[in-house]
Design a protein that fits this description.
It contains 19 helices and 27 strands. By secondary structure, it is of the alpha+beta class. It has six domains: about 180 residues, Beta-Lactamase, CATH 3.30.450; about 50 residues; about 110 residues, Beta-Lactamase, CATH 3.30.450.20; about 100 residues, Beta-Lactamase (2-Layer Sandwich); about 110 residues; about 160 residues, 2-Layer Sandwich (Heat Shock Protein 90). A six-stranded antiparallel beta sheet has the order 3-2-1-6-5-4. A six-stranded mixed beta sheet has the order 22-21-24-25-27-26, covered by helices on one side. A hairpin with a 2-residue loop joins strand 13 and strand 14. Helix 14 packs antiparallel against helix 15 and helix 16 crosses helix 18. The longest helix has about 80 residues. The relative contact order is 0.04. InterPro entries: HATPase_C_sf (IPR036890), HATPase_dom (IPR003594), His_kinase_dom (IPR005467), HisK_dim/P_dom (IPR003661), HisK_dim/P_sf (IPR036097), PAC (IPR001610), PAS (IPR000014), PAS-like_dom_sf (IPR035965). It is an enzyme of class 2 (transferase). This is histidine kinase.
Amino acid sequence: MKISFYIKLFLAFIVFAVLLLGFSSFAFNNFYKYHNEKKDKKETIDILNQEEKFFNYYLESYDEKIALMQSNIAKAKNKEEIIEFVENSVFNDENIYTFKIIGLDSKEKFRIEKISDGIKVINEEKLKSIFTKKYFKDMRVLKPKEILHYNSNLENISQIDFILRNENNFYVFKINFAQVFNKIENDFLKKTSIINPSDSSINKNLNLRNNIISKKIYLNDNQYFEFIIKNEDFTNDYIKDYYKSIIIVGFCIALFLSLLFSGPIAKLNTEVEEKNKKLDLSIKKNFLELNENQKVIDKHIMFVRLTKDNIIIDASYAFCYFLGYSKGELIGYNYNILIHKDMKKKEQKRIWKQIKSGQSYVGEIKGSKKDSEAFWIDLFVEGIFENKKLVGYTVICTDITNKKKIEELYVDLNKQVEQYNAIFENVNSGISLIDSTGNFVKLNGNFSKFLGYNSKELLSMNCTDIITEDSRKILQKILQEVREIGNISNLEKIFVRKNGTFIHLELSLSILSSDKEHLVFVVNSLEDKRKLQELNQNLEQRINQEVEKNIQKDKLHQQEQIKNAKLTSIGSLAAGIAHEINTPLTYIKGNLELMYYDILDLPEDEIRNRMKYDSEKMKEGINRIANIVESMREMSQSSKEIKERTNIYGTLITSLTMAYNRSRQVCKIYLNEKLFDIDSINKNEFVFCSKVQKQRIEQVWIIVINNALDELIKVEDYEKRVLNILLFEEKEQIIIKFKDSAGGIKEEIINDIFEPFVSSKEHSGMGVGLNIAKKIIDEQEGIIKAYNEENGAVFEIRLKKCEEE
């Protein structure tokens, strides 16, 4: 049997009324209990704070009293006076019942205890050491006149030791706080319990700790008392007495409400059911329409769904069709298979970071289809969040590939326009565009420059306005011919500038192939053409000059070859002469030494001394001949075309020796600041080694030395003629400087001094010596340069330093 909605509603009202009353009663009861417990807790905390102040007050009062007692005990002269003071003053306080003095070594020195009929002084043999007591560690760190409170008897928490540090010992007062604890426990509004938490026997009885409120009162850093007050129980079961009344009242209310509202509500329910039926039909209809819309969206809208790890879990048919994939080929794969290789990973990370922060992303991205064709799409990416956690992404796309291609075409077109404009403006020709009637439409800067008009002025003029009057008809005829034949070029015409002067320009005209209504009007300056004609006229003359110059060079080379052949012959002859001279010279030198020893054996007289002097002079002459012969022999040796390790200092000595006969008549020569003397030669005095061809380098030195002598001889005062040769190392290079005092090189030839046929000599020399010297230095991978310094010329040669063997 189906129960009617009316009866269901009636029963529901009854249940609702009973539950409502029951809940209200329960809530009121809990509120009442919570309010009283909160009030009681606050009251308990206030009591505990008052008890703490009370307890601390007694501690502080005894601290002050003990401080006063300490000063009097310290004044006592002997043990009897201390006993008398303790008995009459200290023990007057009924709560103090023990006094003792403990040394810094932890041993008791003195102890007095209060007994029922007086005092008791403890014998020395019964005094103990407290070294093992825990509180002795705390005592040792006390400062003078500092007090420590300690409960040393856990069984009796009311016994508190007051320990005062003196200069040489400790005063210990044992005080009974039983009266203080009794007042705290009984004299306040609530019963209070005092415990020492370190007492394990007491801790076992504190099982109901959730029903109490406690406060820790510290004696010292390690010990404290806990004041405990038990909470009152506010459980109230008064509501049990009213259950029957509640049920009756609830039933009456439910009956009344059901009679009052059941009828209208039942009627309203019938109407709602009818509406629900209609709504169900509407929902079904909308559902069918939604399915149709989803099909349309799937077919025409490109979208894809991803997990938070960027794995594809769904994609529309339109998206798959656009990419050339099937849905099965995409689902389960990472989205990276669709990203083009040109997309930077940094940009992708920026996109995902923005989305993970809760923001949507709108932008463009480049991708790659299944057939590797590139595409561009507009993206709208939004994160999917569940319980504020990112679980995936929804991506909606729009194809913009054609738009991108059009943009690229526009960019290319703009670039081409810019290039054409740049060419149009920067060519040397004057270019303009004219219409069919000859009016200027567009022109470049050179066109205006040729004629002296600005662009605005020319754009308001006709092309016939810028030529002479007698040529206007001819120009109009030419324009007509250009329209027929296409172009005419290289016509020389006289044009009229803005200031009225004439200018000859070369004119070219051509019709635009894409626009038959416009002509290109080009004018060129004739100056370049005239310059070319002048160049052509001078070309023959220049060729003749160059041919003559080459003939002179060939003659010079022939003379050099003849000179080299002569020098080779002279060298061979010099080598033979040096060899022939060496034999008798060695004979003469040996016999002279023997004769010198014989002269030394003669008796001392004038003839002996004269013979000795003459022998020494002869010996100097023979040594000079030997040096000259040796230098001739070295210079005349066959030149080896290979580079070898050579001491550059030795080559300078050889060259200076060969030039000595001339140099001694011209100037003084200093080698490394030492005057060169052929009679005192040591080729190994300095060692500066370089890998060069020895004879070639010596040839350079002779050329530079002879050039310096040629200039120095022009200086009239002999004392002002000096040639300094400096030889030193700098990093990995050997530097040789030839510095003279002949006034320096002329400015007009200093930059071309090493070129052939450049010379400062007026009557001799062809200007090829320094050119040969430069070529030799270049072959040795060195550097030679010339410059002026102070009052002379400097020739500086740099050679590579040879590594140590």
